[in-house]
Write a structure and sequence with these properties.
Two copies of one chain form a homodimer.
Chain A: H1 2-22, H2 29-36, H3 40-46, H4 50-79, H5 83-99, H6 109-114, H7 122-149, H8 158-179, H9 183-200, H10 222-234
Helix pairs in contact in A: 1-2, 4-5, 4-7, 5-9, 5-10, 7-8, 8-9
The structure holds a DNA duplex (30 and 30 nucleotides).
Chain lengths: 248, 248
DNA sequence: CCGAAACCGTACCGGCGGTACAGTATACCG
DNA sequence: CGGTATACTGTACCGCCGGTACGGTTTCGG
């Protein structure tokens, strides 16, 4: 029963990469099985049809994402007792994780499915909706916690601020794909972090602006990245579940 | 030559809606021609193949988006001489336009293409990249203009702030599709507006927060919407070009 | 040694993309 | 009035891929 799971996992990984790069309809089963080194019969032994493949693929993706959030948020809380500081740390860690991928971020399966929604059944679409809601609620709870100690500087609805993180990440993944520049994701998460900082910081920190900095974008986070990666990996789950791979 | 253009436009509109709802590969030509009331020969008379359809569709989309931005930014400048206020007005108008669609926002073609990139040729992908870059540069220029009169309260790179608008819009479109809630787009653009306000406002406006507002989201913009729509439409192009339909 | 799990091989159908090409209706233009 | 370009229609066909069916084979644990 172990060898079957391994093949299954290999199929899912190949299929997900293909779906994120070409779309669901354009992902041919024949291509998947060629890359996985199995036959068509082998494929249909594991998945009764393409729709079941999509369903299991999505579940796997959501699971992986949840674990990444668990890790990042947990590490934030370990490194600071202040809820604001903890969240800011978590966001930095998230930014690192998101851009710590060799060939750029492959894409968000939820977004991918949303742009091909008429190809999927209700079950799949409901799972995407419930996943997004769960993540939003999670961020919302964090913001509520922060507000108990740090009054916000703008009467904005926290639901919208919570939603914004998902939006920024999904949007930046698209931009990173469109411009072939993986660093956009990290930069956007950090921009959202600035928003959180501005929203909750009590001391107005008016620093020296950079009015005409048109020039090249510079990587300012190399040291921080090395640090954060160490911190994050240190406490991540031992191994076993291949579920923790990336987020979004 | 006029009747041909009309048919062509009808095909493009149907195809775009289908692509945004099902993806490119799953958009069958037979379905398009059935809905357009023509034959397969008629389709291939206008477009030599599916790839050419994609290319022209994308050009049309980018053109429509540019016009929406032109309108919104122009109206902002007409309504205030202060660059910050003008941009805040433009953002509010943009929020209105984005959510002023009967069946929710159909989706962003750029994002849709990015999630099916391996289906398209270099020409199409280059056009998406150049479009995104142009929009980012446009927002960046606006921010530079604002900073001349309003020093920012955080040393964040303006390129990232400019990128953020595109990211928030694209991300919120996905969320609106995933949750079947068109209002998310408007709310997210307004959240970005709050960020801009916080970033550039000189007088720290610490208002009464709403610490535990867990309850239902309320529509606070009905009056403003009616106003903004009027303002926007008033100065929009007379007609002719069916290009101005929606943004993103 | 038996039986379940995990495949392989082959054959086949149907749907869709795309090509080819001949024919037709309409409008404008000289 | 005739001709020519535009804007299609109609039919026929190929090839590829998704999906089904079903029988055979290997591997491995008990």
């Amino acid at each position: 029963m172990r060898k079957g799971d391994e093949t299954r996992e290999r199929i899912l990984e190949i299929a997900e990469m293909s779906v994120l790069a070409k779309g669901f309809a354009a992902t041919w089963i024949e291509e998947i099985i060629a890359e996985a080194g199995i036959t068509k019969s082998g494929f249909f032994y594991h998945f009764k049809d393409k729709n079941e493949l999509a369903h299991i693929m999505l579940k796997r993706y959501v699971c992986a994402n949840d674990r990444v959030f668990d890790d990042v948020i947990e590490r934030g809380h370990q490194l600071s007792d202040d809820p604001l500081q903890a969240f800011l740390i978590s966001l930095k860690l998230l930014a690192e994780v998101m851009s710590d991928l060799p060939n750029g971020h492959p894409g968000c399966l939820i977004a991918c499915i949303c742009y091909q929604e008429r190809q999927f059944d209700r079950e799949v679409l409901n799972l995407t909706a419930r996943s997004v809601e769960a993540w939003n609620a999670r961020f919302r709870a964090i913001l509520d916690n922060i507000a108990l100690e740090h009054p916000p500087r703008d009467p904005i609805d926290f639901d919208d601020v919570a939603d914004m993180l998902s939006c920024v990440v999904d949007g930046s993944i698209i931009m990173s794909k469109a411009l072939n520049d993986p660093s956009r994701i990290e930069r956007q998460v950090m921009a959202f972090r600035s928003f959180i900082k501005l929203l909750f910081s009590s001391t107005p920190q008016i620093r020296v602006p950079m009015p005409n900095s048109t020039g090249a974008r510079e990587r300012s986070t190399d040291r921080a990245r090395a640090y954060a990666s160490t911190v994050l990996i240190k406490n991540s789950r031992p191994s076993g579940s291949t579920c923790v791979r990336r987020s979004w």
